[in-house]
Design a protein that fits this description.
The complex is a heterodimer. By secondary structure, chain A is of the alpha/beta class. In chain A, the strands form two sheets. In chain A, strands 6-7-8-3-9-10 form a six-stranded mixed β-sheet, with helices on both faces. Chain A has a four-stranded antiparallel β-sheet with strand order 2-1-4-5, with helices on one face. Chain A starts with a strand and ends with a helix. In chain A, strand 1 and strand 2 form a beta hairpin. Chain A has ten helices and ten strands. Chain B is an alpha/beta fold. Chain B has a domain at 18-103 and 185-275 and 282-328: Rossmann fold (3-Layer(aba) Sandwich). Chain B is built from twelve helices and twelve strands. Chain B has an eight-stranded mixed β-sheet with strand order 6-7-8-3-9-10-12-11, with helices on both faces. A four-stranded antiparallel β-sheet of chain B has the order 2-1-4-5, with helices on one face. Classes of the chains: A alpha/beta, B alpha/beta. Chain A binds chain B through residues 44-45, 151-152, 178-179, 181-187, 189-190, 193, 208-212, 214-216, 234-235, 238-239, 248-249, 252-260, 262-269, and chain B through 49, 55-57, 169, 195-196, 198-200, 203, 225-229, 231-235, 250-252, 255-256, 265-267, 269-274, 276, 278, 280-285.
Chain lengths: 269, 335
């Protein structure tokens, strides 16, 4: 997937006032996600990463610019033309609890996108649902449970199972790991890596935590105030960061990680 | 439950009597939820920074709520909680009002949920002062300004007049801390206060806690799932798992030499992105915690443990002192 010159502007008109407040959430973004890779998009809150994710997933239309996916320009597609895209590109949002209907059972949640795409309720759909639950590490016997009966980490797995239903080629995970415990984060990341290898998926991990996603990414892109300030292979970004903001993020990671290693080596408070 | 014993932690040698002393604290909810906390015995001294480390569901938040007397009414609590010589289990509502906010302050995960959306922030901090301190309006205003400066919010006029929705997330976190510090409490309980913050902002918030501890010698009970936050910050660490304390001790000792297999596994999870040659698979602790803990025989970590033996399935491990002040609840701990 490639974004070229993407801009996104939000305008707020105040009632009775002449002034229109303008927020340029994305400014001239050039961004590339290589096939079958794990790409990390990092930035602080407000840097525009979620806005970019929504544009890439076509959940929001960019104000200007182009988005290319598999040799087709997709940002200006009409609704009925986007169906193939929706099957190929799936997004798992930050708040899994918010994106899972609390009144649906796990089976209904996972089968919803299948049914929208023409699968009829029946044996084939049920077995596909069980298959997906197993793939993400949930017991098939839990299909009748509702989201509230799952833990936070399990809800994320459920959201991932739903996203995998239509066999997408690109999975976008928007801060899907924040708010989870370290151990759950590690398990979900391992699951994603496994799924990526098994299905040759492309993963786009969006996070504010460079230390976390930097462990597994092939490529890293850094965002600041609506722009991509640096992008490249993970090794290069970590070893020779060029942009000051990248250096800032890396030094925060360094402080935490080396502080921890020092404590492990026996340094006191 | 008779065979369950927690750990006994002796207080810091600085102070004669522990500020908070908890013995055999157990919390149960009838029905599906079951056992939240089992046989916890701990003591904290004045001026210590104590880290409670554990994943969701480990009981660390239940522990905090039990101390604050904020458990839901259907929770069954047993054991004793002594705070500054007073038994917190016996308090009535009006007595609690003298403790909460004044002697023990609390900061929770989402600061904007702790603040009323319809009151100006300055008024909300002043409210704490009105409830507990004898000050006139002018003195209160000055104190609020002082508090905002303490938490590094220098635009005091703007902040005091603002409503919560007009402030950024980082500013709201600092306001919540200012509110907690208002009456110079003896103890501050902070439950995952930095969880929703960017990594870059967490360090600044931790520094505020450190300063509060340095300046007023208040005890800080810092609850988190992330060991990296506690390094260089806490004096002691207490590791919770499955409603029990599995290990505790001075932080340098526990981090350098984790005895309990769960602690070891947890410490390995701290990201090591700076290490070259990233091995793609992360060292995750296999399995998940057992669904129902009430009927569990034996060690609660047994089903995920790599060093378990036969006795672990039938008996719950007791507290063992390994080195001075470093305790572990494990039959097969490895040094």
């Amino acid at each position: 997937m490639r974004a070229h010159g993407v801009c996104k502007r939000f305008e707020q008109k105040r009632l009775f006032a002449r002034k229109i407040s303008v927020v340029d959430a994305l400014q001239d973004v050039d961004f590339e996600v290589s096939a079958s890779s794990v790409t990390a998009l990092v930035g602080e809150s407000g840097s525009g990463k979620s806005t970019l994710a929504k544009c890439l997933a076509l959940m929001d239309r960019p104000t200007s610019g182009e988005i290319w996916f598999e040799d087709a320009e997709v940002s200006k597609l009409q609704r009925h033309e986007r169906k193939w895209f929706r099957r190929a590109v799936q997004m798992v949002a930050q708040d899994a609890s918010g994106s899972l209907n609390p009144r649906f059972t796990a089976a209904q949640i996972i089968s919803e996108p299948l049914e929208i795409n023409g699968w009829k309720p029946g044996a084939r759909t049920s077995s596909r649902v069980c298959e997906l639950m197993n793939e993400v590490g949930l017991l098939a016997s839990w299909v009748e449970r509702r989201p509230l009966e799952f833990s936070g980490g399990q809800r994320q797995r459920l959201a991932i199972a739903r996203a995998l239903g239509l066999q997408p080629s690109l999975l976008i995970l928007d801060e899907s790991l924040s708010g989870l415990d370290l151990s759950t984060q590690a398990q979900i990341l391992n699951l994603l890596l496994e799924l990526q290898e098994r299905h040759r998926l492309t993963l786009l991990l969006i996070s504010h935590d460079l230390g976390l996603v930097g462990q597994v990414a092939d490529f890293v892109a850094v965002m600041e105030k609506g722009r991509i300030v640096e992008q490249g292979p993970r090794q290069r970004i970590f070893a020779q960061p060029e942009h000051p903001h990248t250096c800032e993020l890396l030094s925060a990671v360094r402080v935490i990680e080396s502080g921890f290693r020092a404590a492990q080596a026996g340094a006191g408070r | 439950m008779g065979s369950l014993k927690g750990l006994i932690t002796t207080a810091n040698s600085k102070c004669a009597q522990p500020l908070l002393s908890v013995e055999e604290l157990s919390v149960t909810y009838g029905g599906r939820e079951g056992l939240a906390l089992s046989g916890v015995t701990l003591a904290f001294g004045q001026g210590q920074i104590v880290g409670l480390l554990g994943e969701s569901g480990s009981g660390k938040s239940t522990f905090a709520m039990a101390i604050l007397g904020l458990l839901p009414s259907h929770a069954e609590v047993s054991g004793s909680i002594q705070f500054h010589g007073k038994d917190l289990r016996d308090l009535r509502n009006f007595e609690w009002r003298k403790i909460r906010g004044r002697q023990i302050a609390a900061i929770f995960q989402e600061p904007h949920l702790a603040l009323s959306p319809v009151m100006r922030v300055g008024d909300q901090i002043a409210e704490v002062l009105r409830a507990h301190a004898d000050m006139d309006r002018h003195a209160r205003k000055e104190r609020v300004k002082e508090l905002l400066v303490t938490v590094k919010l220098t635009q005091t006029d703007r902040i005091m007049l603002a409503y919560p929705h007009q402030l950024s997330g980082g500013e709201l976190h600092r306001v919540a801390i200012a509110q907690a510090l208002a009456c110079q409490p003896r103890m501050i309980i902070a439950d995952e206060p930095t969880r929703s913050l960017d990594v870059t902002r967490q360090a600044a918030i931790l520094e505020l806690f450190r300063e509060a501890n340095r300046n007023s010698n208040c005890t800080i009970v810092f609850i988190t799932h992330d060991p990296a936050l506690l390094a260089g910050f806490a004096d002691r660490v207490i590791v919770f798992y499955g409603g029990r304390v599995v290990e505790d001790g001075p932080i340098s000792q526990v981090f350098r030499n984790p005895l309990h297999p769960y602690t070891r596994g947890l410490l390995e999870l701290v990201p090591s992105s700076l290490q070259q040659g990233s091995n793609r698979r992360l060292p995750a602790i296999p399995g998940t915690r057992p669904e129902s803990m009430a009927s569990l025989k034996g060690c609660v970590f047994a089903n995920r443990c790599s060093v378990k033996s036969a006795i672990c399935e039938t008996e719950d491990p007791h507290g063992l002192e390994v080195q001075e002040d470093h305790h572990v609840n494990c039959f097969n701990y490895v040094s």
